[in-house]
Amino acid sequence: MDPLLLLKDIEQTSLSLWIRESDSFYSFWLILSFHAIGMGLLVGASVLIDLRILGLAPDLPLAPLKKLYRFIWVGFWIQVVSGILLLIAYPTKSLTNPDFYLKLTMVALGVAFMQMLKNRVFRDSSLSETVLMAKGRVFAIWSLIFWAGAVTAGRLLAYTYTTLTAA
Amino acid sequence: MNLAHIHLLLNHWPIIGSFIGLALFLVALVANSDDLRQTSLALFALIALLSIPTYMSGNVAQEVLKGTAGLSNALIQTHENTALLALVFMEITGAVALLGLWQFSRMSRPAPGAVARWNSPAVLVLSIVTVGLMSITGNTGGAIRHPEILSGQETTSIVGTIGGKIVPATSYFVTEYSRWVWPTLETLHFFGLILIAAAIGGLNLRLLGFWNEVPVAPLHRLLPWGIAGFALNIVTGMLFFVGMPYFYALNLTVYLKMLAMLLAGTTLLLFYCTGAFRAWARLGPGEDPPALAKFVAASSLILWLAVIVLGRYIPLTQDNLR
C-alpha cells in the first residue's frame, strides 16, 4: 500500500483540515501554544533537576526534587497529545523529514536518561548527597545534551521539511 | 488615538527616567545608602524594560507619519539610528543593574562582596553613556516636529552615523547572511524560555505553597539563571525586531506580549530582586508562604504563560494594526 496515499487520506480528514486550514484562533496556534507550554514544563523541570545534580544551588536539598518528576510527566503527555494533533495536521511534512525522527529520538533519550537519573539519585535516601550527585552526574550532563538536541531539532522542523502536504 | 500616540506617550520615560536613575544613583553612592542604591538600580532595570516597546512603537509612528508634508526623512532616520544605540546601552545598563540589585534580595546579605565591588562602577559608567545617548535621541526626536530647535547638524551626528551602520548590518546578518541564523536565534529564544521556566517557575512553585519541602533561600540562588534566560530572550527578541521590523511593528499581539513581558519583568524585579524578598527568603522547609507571596507567584506564572502564548500567536496577526 502506498504510504503517500495514507498520508493524503489523513490530510483530508476533517480534523486535519480544521487544524491546518481553519482561521480559528483555537486550532493550529492554540495547539502550538500548548506544545510550547509542554516544552517549558518537560524540559524546564528536567533542567532544574540536572543543574542541581551538577552542583548548582548546593544548599537546595536533593530529595524534594523528586516531586518535579510530576511536572516532567505532565509536560510529556501535553507534548504527546499536542504533538499528535500537529502530526495529524501535517503528516507528510513531518514523516518525510529525517529531522523529525531525530527529534523523536532525542526526546526518547532525554526521557530515558531522566528516568535512569531518578532510579540512581532519588531512590536510596540513606546515601549522602555527595554520593547521589556523583551517581547522577553523567546522566545529568547527557540529559541536558539530549534536551538541547530535542529543542533544536524541533525548532528546525519548520526549516528542513521538503513536502508540505501530499496533495 | 492612533499608534503614533503610543510612541509619544512612551518616549519621554526612558529619557527622563535614565536621568533620574543616574541622579539617584550618584546620591546613593555619595550617601552610601543601600535603600537609594536599590531604588536607582531598580529604576534602571525598569526603564530598560520600558525602552523596548518605546523603540518598537517608533516604527509605528514612522508609518503613521508617512506622507505628511514637510517632514524630513533624514531627521527621522537619524533619530531612529541614535535610538538604537541608546536602547542597546540602556539594556546593558539595565542588565548589569539587575544583577547588582539581586544581591540585596539574598537572605544573608554579604558585606560588599565580589559582585558589589565591580557592579557600582560598571553601572555608573554605563548609565552615564546611556544618559548621553538618550539626550541625543531625545534631541533628534524633537527635531522631527520642532524646526525651531534645529541646529542644522542633526543629520550629521556621529551617534546617528554609527547607529545607521548597525541597523542594516544586523538586518543583513539576521535575514540574509545564512538561512540558519534565524532558526538558531529562535532556538536560543526557546532555551531562554526553558531557563525562565526552570528558575523562575521553580521559585513560583515554592511560593505558591506547592513545594513546601524546599527552603526558599537556596531556590532563590538559582534566579540569576532565570535572569540570564530573560536577557537572552530580550537580545534575541531585539535581533528579530531589527532584522524584520515590518513583521512585528504593526502587530497587536506583539505589543500585548511586550506588555505581559513588562509586567512579568516588573514583578520579578520588585518582589524577587529587592530587599522585599528577604522576608520570604527566610521561609524554611514546611513553612507555608504568606498570602502576598502566593499572589505574586501566581501573577508571575500567569504573566509568563501569557508571554509564551502571545509569542506563539504573533504570526497569526501580522499587520492587523495597519
Structure report:
By secondary structure, chain A is mainly alpha-helical. Chain A has one domain (3-160). Chain A is 75% helix and 0% strand. Chain A is built from 7 helices and no strands. Chain A has helices at 3-11, 14-21, 28-53, 69-89, 91-95, 98-121, 129-160. In chain A, helix 3 runs antiparallel to helix 4 (69-89), helix 3 (28-53) packs antiparallel against helix 7 (129-160) and helix 6 (98-121) packs antiparallel against helix 7. The two termini of chain A are 17 Å apart. The relative contact order of chain A is 0.16. Helix content of chain B is 77%, strand content 0%. Chain B contains 12 helices and no strands. Chain B folds into 2 domains: 1-165; 178-322. In chain B, helix 3 (73-102) packs antiparallel against helix 4 and helix 3 crosses helix 5 (158-177). Chain B is globular and about 70 Å long. With 322 residues, chain B is an all-alpha fold. Chain A binds chain B through residues 25, 29, 32-33, 36-37, 39-41, 43-45, 47-48, 51, 56-61, 63-64, 67-68, 147-148, 151-152, 155-156, 158-159, and chain B through 179-180, 183, 186-187, 190-191, 193-199, 201-202, 211, 213-215, 217-219, 221-222, 225, 285, 305, 308-309, 311-313, 315-316.
